[in-house]
């Protein structure tokens, strides 16, 4: 037990040092390799990109830490939130349309949560299937077309800045702070970690493990809906495929930041570190003209390395 504890501590220490060191290295590489990297406009673009993905990643963190692996229905939920918002905006107004959009996203998450949390079906299969179904419903809702609508005031708010900080970044930071408080300071946070760390032991200790894991999927869907609404209000147009890739990017941020794929370990600061690494790496490649396929390959390799490292360290610490 003492050896396992020491190895677990070394694992946490390794990520605590490795993530900031990697971020610093990427900042150095970017600043040396491109004169545009440290410009205000580029850094603001990076922060905005981090924020849209980060809102999803914050929700996904609860799924992964509770032992639910990942939510692959995120792209469809983002599209659903965006489509419903713009589709009902003329009738309900922006605020009313957003409430309806987030309620629909929460319903999709609740279905995932019930099937995964209570029936204990495989999370990957369930969310992959619901991604296809929900996206199909969203496409049928608009006939596969691009949805357009306009609310100048909402568009100005979402694309605006406060004290030089983009509104979307502020929304992300507020949500991240709330999530960090929940995970680090509340009973629910302890239940989430306990459910992912040892499901049977947590259940025996009175933790409502099914409910905890189920709610994690609801939370992820609601936050994915928030990202969809922000994208819709910013772009004022939505395609059914608008959410493509957000599941992969958010999952990449989690594993690169040191949130254990097997559950029971992680924190929101680690998610932020992973987001910085993934987005900075992507931004450097964009500035150097790398094709999208090369960027995807690089992210994939980083994920494989991070997952392999996590599994190896978990085995050494007795977590497997």
Strand arrangement within the widest β-sheet reads: 1-4
> What is the gyration radius calculated from CA atoms?
20 Å
In terms of quaternary structure, what is this?
A: single chain
Which whole number gives the mean pLDDT? 88
Counted beta strands: 4
Helix and strand composition category: mainly alpha
Strand content: under 5%
The topology string of helices and strands comes to: HHHHEHEEHHHHEHHH
Measure the end-to-end span.
Answer: 14 Å
- The number of helical segments is 12
Bulk shape: globular
Major beta sheet summary: 2 strands, antiparallel
Instruction: Assign a percent range to the helix content.
Output: over 70%
**Low-confidence runs of at least 5 consecutive residues:** 1-5
SSE layout and pairings?
Elements (H helix, E strand, L loop, with lengths): L1 H32 L6 H26 L8 H45 L4 H20 L4 E2 L3 H7 L2 E2 L2 E2 H19 L1 H11 L1 H6 L4 H27 L1 E2 L7 H12 L10 H20 L4 H25 L4
Antiparallel strand pairs: 1-4, 2-3
Features:
single chain, 320 residues, two-stranded antiparallel ribbon, 78% helix, disordered N terminus
Can you walk me through this structure?
This protein is mostly helical. It has a domain at 35-243. 78% of the residues lie in helices and 2% in strands. The protein has twelve helices and four strands; from the N terminus they run ααααβαββααααβααα. The chain has helices at 2-33, 40-65, 74-118, 123-142, 152-158, 167-185, 187-197, 199-204, 209-235, 246-257, 268-287, 292-316, and strands at residues 147-148, 161-162, 165-166, 237-238. A two-stranded antiparallel ribbon has the order 1-4. Strands 2-3 form a two-stranded antiparallel sheet. β2 (161-162) and β3 form a beta hairpin. α1 (2-33) runs antiparallel to α12, α2 crosses α10 and α10 (246-257) runs parallel beside α12 (292-316). The chain is globular. It starts with a helix and ends with a helix. The model is unreliable at 1-5 (pLDDT under 50).
């Amino acid at each position: 037990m003492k050896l396992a504890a020491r190895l677990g501590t070394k694992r946490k220490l390794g990520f605590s040092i490795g993530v900031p060191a990697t971020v610093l290295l990427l900042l150095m590489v970017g600043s040396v390799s491109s004169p545009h990297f440290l410009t205000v406009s580029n850094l603001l673009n990076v922060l905005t990109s981090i924020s849209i993905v980060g809102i999803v990643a914050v929700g996904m963190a609860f799924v992964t830490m509770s032992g639910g692996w990942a939510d692959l229905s995120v792209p469809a939920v983002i599209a659903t939130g965006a489509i419903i918002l713009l589709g009902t905006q003329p009738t309900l107004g922006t605020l009313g349309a957003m409430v309806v959009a987030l309620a629909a996203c929460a319903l999709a998450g609740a279905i995932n949560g019930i099937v995964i949390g209570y029936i204990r079906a495989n999370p990957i299969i369930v969310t992959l299937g619901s991604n296809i179904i929900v996206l199909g419903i969203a496409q049928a809702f608009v006939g596969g077309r691009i949805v357009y609508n306009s609310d100048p005031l909402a568009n100005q708010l979402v694309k605006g800045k406060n004290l030089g900080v983009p509104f979307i970044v502020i929304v992300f930071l507020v949500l991240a702070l709330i999530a960090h408080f929940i995970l680090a300071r509340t009973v629910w946070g302890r239940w989430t970690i306990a459910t992912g760390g040892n499901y049977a032991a947590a259940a025996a200790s009175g933790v409502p493990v099914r409910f905890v894991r189920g709610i994690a999927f609801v939370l992820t869907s609601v936050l994915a809906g928030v990202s969809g609404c922000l994208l819709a209000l910013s772009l004022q147009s939505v395609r059914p495929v608008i959410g493509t890739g957000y599941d992969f990017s958010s999952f990449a941020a989690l594993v690169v930041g040191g949130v254990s794929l097997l559950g029971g370990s992680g924190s929101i600061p680690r998610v932020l570190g992973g987001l910085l690494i993934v987005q900075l790496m992507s931004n450097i490649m964009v500035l150097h003209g790398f094709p999208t396929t090369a960027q995807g390959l690089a992210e994939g390799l980083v994920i494989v390395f991070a997952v392999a490292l996590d599994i190896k360290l978990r085995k050494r610490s007795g977590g497997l």
